[in-house]
Hints:
Elements: E1 3-8, E2 11-19, H1 24-28, E3 38-44, H2 45-61, E4 66-72, H3 81-93, E5 101-106, H4 108-120, E6 126-131, H5 134-140, E7 145-150, E8 153-160, E9 165-169, H6 178-195, H7 197-205, H8 207-211, H9 215-235, H10 250-259, H11 266-283, H12 289-301, H13 325-334, E10 338-339, E11 342-343, E12 345-350, E13 353-357, H14 362-374
Parallel strand pairs: 2-9, 3-4, 3-5, 5-6, 6-9
Antiparallel strand pairs: 1-2, 7-8, 10-11, 12-13
The structure holds nicotinamide-adenine-dinucleotide.
Nicotinamide-adenine-dinucleotide (NAD) binds next to helix 2, helix 4, helix 5 and strand 8.
Amino acid sequence: xxxxTVKRNDKPIYNIExxxxxDIIKEKLEDAGINGRKVCVVSDSNVSKIYYEEVKRxxxxxxxxxxxxxxxxxxxDNKTTVTIFSIIxxxxxGHFDRNDFLFxxxxxxxxxxxxxxxxxYLRGIKFYQLPTSLLAMVDSSIGGKTGVDFNGxxxxxxxxxxxxxxxxxxxxxxxxxxxxxxxxxxxxIKHAVIADKNYFQYLNxxxxxxxxxxxxxxxxxxxxxxxxxQAVVENxxxxxxxxxxxxxxxxxxxxxxxxxxxxxxxGECVSLGIIAAAYISHSRNLISLEDYEAxxxxxxxxxxxxxxxxxxxxxxxxxxxxxxxxxxxSIIKSDxxxxxxxxxxxxxxxxxxxxIDTTVTDEEIIKAINELGGFHE
Length: 377
Ligand SMILES: NC(=O)c1ccc[n+]([C@@H]2O[C@H](COP(=O)([O-])OP(=O)(O)OC[C@H]3O[C@@H](n4cnc5c(N)ncnc54)[C@H](O)[C@@H]3O)[C@@H](O)[C@H]2O)c1
């Protein structure tokens, strides 16, 4: 229960290690070739000041000849090519070569950028993921998708570049702001809804422990989610097929995220997108009213938004979304996941089983968004 090995074509490519401190790096990377090499730890302005010194000590104990940090101002706004070029300038100035290393210490923004810098510097160097947000632990640190936003388009520039290892230190969640922590549960609920009915039940039974950050429960949940993500990325490493299941809740979720000018957290939008996709699944009789209600209940139990009224405290734009359906539809159609004119929608035909559907109509999307505007429990 402390290690997951991610494979490709049955060959192990990297391990996800679970622990409650960064000391595990010393043990697990003893033979990783860091002795005598340079390391740059990329981190954002919030995370760096809490964890960099601890990580640096571990890296230095492995015999690294140099350990430097690259710190950027926290936030999605800085997930840009500009920051990537600054990282690269830093590596050039430090004479990093192909055998040196990057470490991503932070949330998904840090992981995506560090991975991308590692993918393109000298045509590819090794990097390790040290995810510190719940979202990064269960989602972005696994699977090798790296990249940055470009001209207002999310993740428009990037590449697949696998990490050499992922170190999940669950105790780092203690400093994660509450809203960020809750937001991470949207991807976790998504995993259960698309892939595992028992896990769905487990989340139902353990919401109190999860929300109070009971370490045994949180570790269990992260582990179970990582197993689901592992199975999906192993089967479809470059998103040609079933990896698209992970987009459940993201078609409408992303559109809401963009429409709200990124004033909401990703997980909050995914949560609304999950409700919308479950609603469409129910209105097509793919799932029962009971299952639809069970999904709503779970989302609510994790204090995630069920409807626009739940997010109005964060953005005034939630009030007028009903009058701007054309804009939402046009955002959905310009999304990367729309394949030409066809929108690849992920629905469920039971709790725990996802299906891809390319026949969801504009009317169904509008009805689902109206549903988000109508309820407030
Ligand atoms: N590559 C993938 O497969 C994949 C999958 C999902 C999401 N993503 C990307 O992930 C990003 C979102 O990730 P995120 O939600 O982690 O955002 P983030 O990296 O911006 O982190 C969220 C906030 O929490 C702070 N933070 C993180 N860990 C902390 C800790 N332990 N203590 C204190 N503060 C902490 C950060 O400084 C930041 O302010 C998006 O850019 C999204 O596109 C990528």
